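dumping this here so i dont lose it
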C-alpha cells in the first residue's frame, strides 16, 4: 500500500451476500476514518432483496472526497466475505490493489462450504489473500462476527492504530455484541499479520 494513504484518496470495497453484515463493516471503517480526521463518503449497493443476494459497499477516504463511488480499476482494497462475490468484484481493484477474501463458497442453492470446488485454483489470483474466517469464527462459535474478522484483517494493512479501530467499533456496535466482535476482530488482525503475502503496513 502507498505510504501516502492518509493524504491521498483511498477506496475500500466490501462485498458478500445478504446476512453477512457487509453494510455494518462499511459503517465501522467510515467511523475509523472520521475519527482519524479524514473526509469520508460511503455508498451502498444491494442486489436481490433476500438472504444470499449480493451486497456491496464502497468507503472512500481522504482529506477531501468528492464522490462516494469509483469505477472499475480504482479500488485499493477489496474485502469479500464470500469467494464468488469477491471474484466478481476483482475488476474494481487497481493494479496495485489487494483483495482479502474469506474462504466461503455459497452455491446457487444456498449450500455453503469453507472450501471452493476442487477445480478452483487460488494460485491464479496473485493479488488475493485467502483467509479462513469461516473456519475461525465457526470454531469460536462466533459465526455472526465474520464481518469483524475481515475488518480485523483489513486493520492489519490500513495505517490506523488499534485504539482508533476499537473506538470506532464501540461507537457502532451495541454493547452486548462487543465482546464477540472484538474477539473476532483480533483474530482477523492476527491472521493477516502472519500471512506471508500481506502488504506491509506503512508506519
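and the seq i came up w/
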Amino acid at each position: 500500500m502507498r505510504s501516502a494513504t492518509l493524504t491521498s484518496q483511498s477506496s475500500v470495497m466490501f462485498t458478500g451476500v445478504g446476512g453477512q453484515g457487509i453494510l455494518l463493516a462499511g459503517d465501522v471503517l467510515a467511523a475509523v476514518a472520521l475519527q482519524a480526521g479524514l473526509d469520508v463518503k460511503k455508498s451502498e449497493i444491494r442486489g436481490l432483496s433476500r438472504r444470499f443476494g449480493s451486497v456491496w459497499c464502497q468507503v472512500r477516504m481522504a482529506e477531501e472526497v468528492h464522490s462516494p463511488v469509483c469505477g472499475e480499476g480504482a479500488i485499493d482494497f477489496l474485502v469479500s466475505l464470500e469467494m464468488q462475490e469477491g471474484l466478481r468484484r476483482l475488476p474494481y481493484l487497481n493494479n496495485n490493489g489487494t483483495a482479502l477474501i474469506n474462504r466461503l463458497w455459497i452455491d446457487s442453492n444456498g449450500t455453503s462450504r469453507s472450501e471452493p470446488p476442487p477445480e478452483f485454483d487460488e494460485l491464479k489470483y496473485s493479488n488475493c489473500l485467502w483467509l479462513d474466517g469461516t473456519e475461525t469464527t465457526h470454531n469460536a462459535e462466533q459465526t455472526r462476527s465474520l464481518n469483524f474478522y475481515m475488518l480485523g484483517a483489513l486493520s492489519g494493512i490500513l495505517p490506523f492504530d488499534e485504539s482508533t479501530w476499537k473506538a470506532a467499533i464501540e461507537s457502532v456496535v451495541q454493547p452486548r455484541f462487543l465482546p464477540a466482535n472484538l474477539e473476532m476482530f483480533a483474530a482477523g488482525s492476527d491472521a493477516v499479520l502472519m500471512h506471508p503475502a500481506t502488504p506491509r503496513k506503512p508506519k
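The chain has one domain: 10-110+121-194.
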